Amino acid sequence: MKLKFTKMHGAGNDFIVIDAIHQDVDFTRAQWARLADRRFGIGADQILVVHKPEAADVDFRYRIYNSDGSEVEQCGNGSRAFVKFVVEKGLTDKRSIRVQTMKAIIAPRLEDDGMVTVDMGAPVLEPAQVPFQADGLHGVPEGHDVLWPLDVGTSRVLVSVVSMGNPHAVQVVADVDTAPVLDTGPLVEHHPRFPARVNAGFMQIVDRHHIRLRVYERGAGETLACGTGSCAAVVAGIRRGLLDSPVRVEARGGELSIAWAGPGQPVMMTGPAVTVFEGEIEI
Ligand SMILES: N[C@H](CCC[C@H](N)C(=O)O)C(=O)O
């Protein structure tokens, strides 16, 4: 079939966006991975698919696939591209929409200045629900958080565990530029105590309202920015007593602003969404 798509990015985290309302999109994991392949396909970190809603109180269903073809629960940068796409394509006459993902409803709003603000929902902080298997581990309390020791390779790292619908393990490093992201990242991603794997965040505290962040993403490797990873890092930093809301998150591909008022409250993310080109591909 000839598949129409739009190439987009949010702070350098790049996406293939597909309208599955007007196209029949039912691909295998291998086909999703082929589309995302940067040599044999279009190339992207994730594929975002726009479906009709399955409930009356939402505007769209949003399915997300990593570049390895795995379907996942949430994509923060993708949620900003999603609302820009449906507005630009005339799939809605709204600028603030409710979108159902695998495990949550999020609410992205396209602002007049072209930036997008998203209510990402409340973080899940209970380790077993991340999911993280803490049994037999001695967590290290810090502020309102608990840091969990992970043996990765020859080193031991202390991580906060947070779910934004998808799982995150966040550690503080002195300097993100010299942090062993490409070495430690895959070891954290595949650590056996994360039965669904995990996104590995490396956070440098610049000041109480500013971090630098690199994320080795589950199913995609290091990306230039990670929306849910930014939310998880700010939640972890606030819980540890290291950060105060709102926080400027400086990623390699751009900046996001994250605000969180505390447990049970939604994480609010603001950032860019850019359309790069339209295309068609035979698949
Ligand atoms: N790799 C993530 C999904 C994409 C998240 C990221 N691109 C974002 O902006 O939140 C996972 O497997 O949970």
Automatic annotation (TrEMBL):
- Identify which residues the record assigns to the active site: 75, 226
KW Lipid metabolism (keyword) present:
no
Q: Which PROSITE patterns does the protein's record reference?
A: DAP_EPIMERASE (PS01326)
Query: What biological processes does GO assign it?
Result: lysine biosynthetic process via diaminopimelate
Q: Which Gene3D superfamilies match?
A: Diaminopimelate Epimerase, Chain A, domain 1
One MF annotation (Gene Ontology) recorded for this entry: diaminopimelate epimerase activity
Keyword terms? Amino-acid biosynthesis, Cytoplasm, Isomerase, Lysine biosynthesis
Q: Where in the cell is it found?
A: Cytoplasm
GO CC annotation terms, alphabetical: cytosol
Might you give the EC number(s) for this enzyme?
Answer: 5.1.1.7
Q: At which positions is substrate bound?
A: 13, 46, 66, 76-77, 166, 199, 217-218, 227-228
The similarity annotation says:
Belongs to the diaminopimelate epimerase family.
Q: What quaternary structure, including any partners, is listed in this protein's UniProt entry?
A: Homodimer.
Q: What is this protein called?
A: Diaminopimelate epimerase
Name the species this protein comes from. Answer: Zemynaea arenosa
User: Source gene?
Assistant: dapF
